[in-house]
C-alpha cells in the first residue's frame, strides 16, 4: 500500500519525505487554508519536494470552471493530480482530464456506487472518506471492501485512495481491505512506528549493552 501524507505543511512533508515512507501528498481547501499560504505557491513547493503525485483540489462546482481551474493547476508541475468532487460535473471534468492523460483524484466519495461512476470515467484515484463515515456511525472500512470487490470484478484500474484516516487502526483496516493508497495525517504516520514494547525493548537492550563496556565503532 502506498502512503500519501494528507497535509499542506511543508515542514511535515520534508521531514516525512526524508524517512522514505512517502509516495505522494494530498491537499484540500481546508488544509490550504490552515497553511495560511498561497494555494499555487504551496502546491509548487510541495511538487518540488515530492516526486510522486500531489493532489490539488478545484474550487469551482461548474464543469467549465473545474476544467479551467484544473488546467491551471496541471501547469504548475508534472506531478500535480487534479482533485475533483464526486458530483456529475466533477465526473464530467474527470472524463475530460482522463482524455488528456492528466491524473485525477475524485474526492468526497461516501458510497460504492459513487466509486463505480468514478472508475467508469477513468479517474486515476477514488477517495473514499473513512473517518467521516465512522463519525456518523457507518463502518468506513466496509466501503473500501465493497469498492475493492467492484473494481476487481471489472478490472478497473482506478486506485482506491483511502482518505479521512484518523488513527493507526484505520491504516491497518484499509490495508487489510486492499486499498491501493492511504492518505494519512502526519501525526498518524508518526504513530505507526510507535509501540510501547519496542520502546521497552530498546531501553532494556541499551542498559545491558552499556554494562558490557564495549563500543561498536
Ligand atoms: C482527502 O484527500 C482529504 O484531504 C482528507 O483525507 C479529509 O480528511 P478529514 O475527514 O479528516 O478532513
Entry keywords:
217 residues; TIM Barrel; 11 helices; alpha/beta; schiff base; 53% helix; binds erythose-4-phosphate; Aldolase_TIM
What topology emerges from the helices and strands here?
Blueprint: E1 2-6, H1 10-18, E2 24-26, H2 29-35, H3 39-49, E3 54-57, H4 63-74, E4 80-85, H5 88-99, E5 104-109, H6 112-120, E6 125-128, H7 130-135, H8 140-154, E7 159-162, H9 168-176, E8 181-184, H10 186-192, H11 196-212
The protein binds erythose-4-phosphate (E4P).
Keywords: Cytoplasm, Pentose shunt, Schiff base, Transferase
Function: Transaldolase is important for the balance of metabolites in the pentose-phosphate pathway.
Pathway: Carbohydrate degradation; pentose phosphate pathway; D-glyceraldehyde 3-phosphate and beta-D-fructose 6-phosphate from D-ribose 5-phosphate and D-xylulose 5-phosphate (non-oxidative stage): step 2/3
Please explain how this structure is put together.
The chain is 53% helix and 17% strand. Strands 1-2-3-4-5-6-7-8 form an eight-stranded parallel barrel, surrounded by seven helices. With 217 residues, it is α/β, with parallel strands linked by helices. The chain has helices at residues 10-18, 29-35, 39-49, 63-74, 88-99, 112-120, 130-135, 140-154, 168-176, 186-192, 196-212, and strands at 2-6, 24-26, 54-57, 80-85, 104-109, 125-128, 159-162, 181-184. Helix 6 (112-120) runs parallel beside helix 8 (140-154). Helix 5 (88-99) links the parallel strand 4 (80-85) and strand 5 (104-109). The protein has a single domain (2-192), classed as TIM Barrel (Alpha-Beta Barrel), CATH 3.20.20. Bound molecules: erythose-4-phosphate. Residues 6, 26, 28, 107, 127, 129, 131-132, 163-164, 183 line the site of erythose-4-phosphate (E4P). Erythose-4-phosphate binds next to helix 7.
